[in-house]
Write a structure and sequence with these properties.
109 residues, mainly alpha
């Protein structure tokens, strides 16, 4: 085997390793965000994110509702709170808050 095919093989293996690692990390963050949703958010926003009329929460499964806010706005709301929703800046890390905002996007149908 010449040096060029060997080098291509090594680069391909390295690229695949990186892709697999990032995919697994993303899956783990997604699972943690889903657990956070269940324990911190579902009480008011519903287990599937459909909202609860009594709590005056929005239906995050709606594409129209999701189009009305940016990821940055979701992160800010989770971090700082928005009456009656409490702030989570002292309860969740910045990475957990970002993962939770990303999780909200997965609720869209």
């Amino acid at each position: 085997m010449s040096a060029k095919p060997m080098k291509k093989h090594t680069l391909l293996r390295a690229a695949l390793t990186i892709i697999i690692t990032l995919t697994l990390a993303s899956f783990a963050c997604g699972a943690e965000a889903a657990d956070t949703w269940k324990t911190k958010c579902a009480v008011c926003h519903g287990p599937e994110g459909k909202g609860k009329p009594a709590a005056h929460t929005q239906d995050y499964t709606s594409a129209d509702v999701q189009a009305k806010f940016t990821d940055e706005e979701a992160i800010k709301t989770i971090t700082d709170g928005k009456k009656p929703m409490p702030s989570y800046k002292d309860k969740l890390s910045a990475d957990e808050i970002k993962a939770l905002a990303a999780y909200i996007r997965t609720l869209k149908k």
